[in-house]
Fold:
Amino acid sequence: MGQFLMGDITLHKRLLDHLRTAVIMLDDALCVRYLNPAAEMLLATSTSRAVGQPLPGYFFDDEEARLAIQQCIDDEHPFTQREARLSVAPGHEIMVDYSVSPINEPGQPLCLLMEMQSLDRLLRISREEALIHAHQATRALVRGVAHEIKNPLGGIRGAAQLLERALPDPELTEYTKVIIDEADRLRSVADRMLGPRKPPEFRAVNVHECLEHVRQLLLAEYPKGVAIWRDYDISLPDVIADRDQLIQVLL
Structure:
């Protein structure tokens, strides 16, 4: 270990240099004597700047951590700090677990081995898993709502068809047709909520027919509260569109 601390290229150093765990070696005055590349990357520093310098002050922002490191020197007892937030640079904060272990070899000064494990990636994975679970819960809720929407639609549509047959005035069937068409459109919406989103069903659509459908919906909802002025150009050709989506846009 003495040879290692003096900077000799040894097997121990090569092993430490290839670790993904950040490792720092400190002397009994808490000055940095060595840090591996993983520590350089984690702490946004370099060996030339860190070696010989005191352990950065952000390790001592927590008074409990300061006392624990000092006790580690005095009592030669290791300790571990969980979820420590280190402000390694302006605007750059990391969260780590780190442990400090005393190393006391005969004839050599006491030194401390500090090992750090970044938690940022683990926290990001946890957040992503939470989002996935939330998405799954939302999807289950949407599917449940879609089922509840579909259940009464069949009854509404069937009742409108029976009413249409019983109406004495053929002009009144215009309103039952609106009920039937809207029930079918809601069923289509519910189907899209229940399964994979299907591509639009493009076909030739008369835009005036869609506009008239929307007009009937508005007049049914606001029979005395809205006036609609129509000025259609009958020379317009059919458009290639998804009828249900076009109606939704117009609404």
